[in-house]
Amino acid sequence: MIEIDVDLIRKLINSQFPEWSNLEIKPVNKSGNDNRTYHLGNQMSVRLPSDKAYVPQVEKEQKWLPILAKHLSTPISEPIAKGEPCEEYPYPWSVNKWLDGETLSLENLIDINQFANDLGKFLSELQLIDASRGPLAGEHNFYRGGDLAVYDEECREAIKNINAFNKNILIEIWESALASKWTHEPVWVHGDIAPGNILIKDGKLCAVIDFGILGVGDPSCDAAMAWTFFDESSRKTFRTAVNFDEETWNRARGWALWKALITYNYHKQSNKTIADESYHIIKVILNDYEAERESQLI
């Protein structure tokens, strides 16, 4: 993996965008994994793929984000310029408009239910934008928006290797997610709706960033935060706002379960903090599923 630091960014800016060579460059608080992000002055950010696997994200964001931004009431990342591969750095890269805000946490929200509604409305807006020429879900975006069954073997293996939960219920949840498919026209999906890609200002949603795994397909993958972040009340608010039918909601739950299972199994021996977070998510998914099942029997 290429070492990306302030010195590298300075060389790239000086050689390709000398008009910005006098601007301060500094790391952001949370830079991400697929890409590395740095402040460039007060109004811009520099975003570089950390590995060859993430290079296709550059062209995709350059092409589609300006188009999507015109149709969304919530600000999103927008490219200003594109950097070219060179001797110091072998991949294309982006200069984006800087968006103010803090990374989402429970502590910086005024009202979690209001946020749940606002995020659901953002996703609904995104799904209404014409997606007829958009990039179909596939390897380029790790199948976000594609058929959840692509992760069937991996998820079943994760369930087999976990002993902390009722495996039969986990399989039941997973199979309920696989039991339906998206039968409508493909819609836009962000692909990684998670706290690290959501900005908050004055206690409210102010921007959504990091569209690296943008694609078109089944929107269920964008609702995993229903179980990874929201509580029971805000989960219901979010579901109403995003307006998913029962089958799409089941697939969304499946996306959340798959990710939590593989994360828990991967980190349970090496990173207690991450493992505990994933354990909690699995528990939330189980409790929510069983409560929903009981309500249907009444």
Could you tell me the number of beta strands? 10
Contiguous uncertain segments of 5+ residues: none
What's the multimeric state? single chain
Structural class call reads alpha+beta
Major sheet size, sense and barrel closure: 5 strands, antiparallel
Percent range of helical residues:
40-55%
Order the strands across the largest sheet as they lie in space: 1-2-3-5-4
The overall pLDDT average reads 96
Distance between the terminal alpha carbons, to the nearest Å? 55 Å
Written as H for each helix and E for each strand, in order along the chain, the element string is: HEEEHEEEHHHEEEEHHHH
Question: Helical stretch count?
Answer: 9
Shape by Cα distribution: globular
Which radius of gyration do the C-alpha atoms yield?
Answer: 20 Å
Strand residues, percent: 5-15%
Give a written overview of the molecule.
The structure is a single chain. Strands 1-2-3-5-4 form a 5-stranded antiparallel beta sheet, sandwiched between helices. It has a 3-stranded antiparallel beta sheet with strand order 6-8-9, covered by helices on one side. Strands 7-10 form a two-stranded antiparallel sheet. It has helices at residues 6-16, 56-69, 112-128, 152-160, 167-178, 225-228, 232-242, 246-267, 272-297, and strands at 25-27, 35-40, 44-49, 79-83, 93-97, 102-103, 187-189, 198-201, 204-208, 215-217. α4 packs across α8 and α5 crosses α8. It is of the alpha+beta class and 298 residues long. The N and C termini lie far apart (55 Å). The longest helix has 26 residues, at 272-297. The protein is globular and about 65 Å long.
